[in-house]
Amino acid sequence: MKRSNRRTRRGTILVLLLVCLIPLMAFLALAIDLGMLATARTQCQDVADLAALSGVRTLNGDTQNGANNNYAAVAPTVQQAATQNRVLSAGISSSQVNVQIGRYVYNATAGRFEGQFPGPSSENWTLVQATVSPDVSSQMAFSKVLGAFVPSLQATATAVHRPRDVAIILDYSGSMRFQSLAGEPYTGTRTTNNPDGNVPLFGHYSAVSSAAMTASYFPAPYEPANITSTTSDGRAPICADFYQDAGGTPAFADAGSAFASSPGGDDCLKTDQNGGSSYAHTAAEVLNISSVNNSTRDATFESSGYAAYGMTAGFNRYTQGPGYFGKTFFIWPPDPSFGADGQPNDWRKRYFTYPGSTAQMDDNSRLWDSSGNWQAPSGSTYAINYDAILNFITSIGPNPFPSRLQSGRILYYDQIPTSIDLSSNPPSDMNQRFWKDYIDYVLGTIDNGNGNYKVYCSGRIGYLGYGKDYSWGTVKITPKSYLSGSPKPYMNYADNPLRPRLHFWFGPLSMIDFLGNYNMWYEYSPYASRFCWWPGTCHEAPMYACKLGIRAALSDIQNNHPNDFVSMIMFSVPKNSANDSSGTRFNRPRVGLGRDYASMQESLWYPPATIGSSSATVRPYDSNNLEVPRAFGGTCYAMPLMLAYNQFSGASSLINYNSGEPAGDAGGNGRRGAQKIIIFETDGAPNTTASASLTNGGSYNSYYNVRYDSSNPGGSEFPYAVYGYGDNSSTVTSQIYSVCQNICNLETAATPGYSTPNKPVQIHCIGFGSYFAPDSSSAAANIATLNQMQKIGNVNDNMPSYKLVYGDQATIVSHLQQAIIKILESSVPVSLVR
Given 172, 249, 271, 383, which is the most exposed site by the fewest CB atoms within 10 A? Predict the structure, then answer.
């Protein structure tokens, strides 16, 4: 056989390797560049997301003076956010960033939100779309060497202000003014809460301990009252909150301390014919008569009165006190003489008559009972000479009142009448009616409107001022029929009634007490409208601080959350019917769901009928007086929660139900898909129920039957409210939790609520004021109720400290504002929708 002579071809594999290496390297380059491209796309999207979020956060709710939601700042902000970043290692230029600004608008027909460019001009700018198109070709090194195509890179992100429907519920119950009560407790006879030492010290007031005009101890939840002076925690005096004209001229003047020890006008007489060192309790002590009977009479004293024996230079018929006390005609003993005008100086005769006649009163037993207690006018006691008292106020001594009194868009009077027409009761003239009621009040009585009077200030009862009348010396009252002699003495010289504190004082202090006496409202609820007249602008505490905090929070919401709808709801105790006149109110929201922040701000301070008109006023006796935003009444949580349910509803039957108010007042403006948030502020514990049926119309079409029609109150729907339960009673709280649960149910539940799996309703509670302070004995129970509301409302934060707001006024204002800001910032106010 012939051997093969073929030789091995060395290096052949190298040629094949070189041939294959080129595509292998190409594939490797492609793999590397594709990975880089994927990374670049992710980075590009991150840049677009960041840019869009930065841009939408720049948009705000400011539409004043051409601000246009800060529209002009959006594009620069987006470009700055984008250009400060890199994709791979390539920078981004402004030309590579495109910005579109639009509106995230609710389509009520479709029941969803839609991004629109530009969208309706009636809506805020709330949407920003950022498109980033960086050039990363220089970063694709392998692809460039191989001449491969490098695709263009682009990422788009759309960010919006997340739409939220927010119900702010505010407590306007009576405890929101407990720190401004002239006396405590809030029901029954008062003990003074006055920290101001500028009080009368003459006459019977010289017995400082018995008079008890000031206090140094203030049990919780009461605080030193800021009626006449600024308190240590900065609460301004309420006496300074009233004006005599629309220009803000103060209505009342502080007389200072000049008349504390030495009054203006007439001073009380001292013993030993006014030559002694101590004030005399009786006429007998003035005249040094040690033994008195029913015929004891001093002819000189009875003819010359206080000027007898050179005791005084004359009699002025008024006594002027310090500070805001004003003046009084009460002085003891009464001056028995007659003035130059031929009229008696004896105030009993000048200002009171025998019933049904013009005969001047001179019988102590008709004015006081045998124990020295002041009595009510009646057919068997006395009648009030209103015209004479009006003359005293305006013409005898300095007049402590302006000719016109107003505050907070309430016109109390625009004239001090010279007479009061009693042919109708109450008088038809509003000025006369006001002054009659005030005079009755100062005299310690109340007229029920039928000429039947009750006493509310005597030695037995003390709802007025700083408390009931008190004993100074030996009490004695002698009927005129017991007097003897010829002539008879003008009274028994040993007579000595119980002595008044603020009783009988005509001045700013008694006027302020008259306009806002909480004890009188509580005890005489059928006549409550006469004692609920403080304006919403006065410094009642802690309400005033609450309003300042809410005002600041509303400004923050408006400026920073342009896609929020907000409703403001106030509560105390609702009306049970159109004719319910027991002081109940707040059967409708102050402002329906929307962006009417101007009305929300004004509604914190002014009567509803004046919102939007700074020159508008209401009278105290107007039917809507009780709707003035002031604090009084019990505490009912269920009613405002039912109103919040209706506000979140989209039921078309609610939109125009309240024909007298803007659309949506009764509800119906709720937006499907918007996050629902309730911010519930309260300073106390619930003690009142309110129940109503729920019309189940399905998801977003259900509502509680508590719809109120301002133009037709009789045709409105009213809850059934029951007052008088104990604080945090299980009957009350179980009802509250039930309404909370209905609000927080899923949209698809049998009783539909407003939660979705991704957007559960949130109920945030704020414990406000001294009832939630660590030293309050009721704090734990009060917090437990709010915690349970929050738990139902998908907020399980166990009432953190920032939601417990108490302290001095400045602290309250700041902490309340920050609490609301933190609540709203915690719920993701902006988000990406693409």
Answer: 249
